[in-house]
Amino acid sequence: MRDGVRNVLDDFRQGNPENFDRAFAELFRLHQRAIYGWLWRIVRNPAAAEDLTIETFWRIYRAHARFDPAREFEPWARAIATHVAIDWMRRRRPEEELPAEIAAPPASDAAISAEIRRKTAQAFARLPPKLRIAAVLAVVEERPHQEVADALGISVGAVKLRVFRALRLLRKDLEQQGITP
Asked: What is the pTM for the complete model shown?
């Protein structure tokens, strides 16, 4: 099976009209769910994640010549998806998106009020997209720093710096709203 996947990746990279459409369709079938899940983790909006999945695969389709078949497809696709999500976030106003899931407490911690969750979600929505993505993936989703770094095309140290800056801005925002983190 590994050779079959390698052949699909080679056909995809080469863009040979005879095999390209079949290879792209196979890659879409194999990776659509993972890319959707990755985008949902970032944008916290199912409808947007669906649209962004299609946009991601459109960009993958156009960028096929830049793919290195010696490398894994999914990390490359996640990096493209992450940039699609950043572009989407930049076009939106923070008040348009209140990703309540980000700040939702565990079911066992019912003492946290809905107001604090709402304010925390608003603070997350006001973060710059690059900081928000790093914080959501590394802190909320607890993804390994290396995975986040690969998706963002930055070093692990840069991920840690972005997370630090995001948490500092979140703390400041919440304090201004009268919440002591």
From this structure: 0.72
